[in-house]
Amino acid sequence: MGNNLEPRWTKMVEMAKESKETLAQVTTMVVAERIDISGCVHPRRRITLDYLGEQSEDQVRYDTQYR
Fold it and tell me: Which of 29, 38, 41, 52 has the smallest CB count inside 10 Å?
């Protein structure tokens, strides 16, 4: 069983490292100001973990309301 789990563990550790690097790059970016279809203004702002959480919640809300 150990021989089966070791490659998976190694792959998971590498994926976690890549994900952390990607997240670090993304959180240095800035989102441009935009106006959505409903006319709501979304101001220019830096991407943070809170911002990503808000976006995730908006996506869940959209997916559950408009299906």
Answer: 38
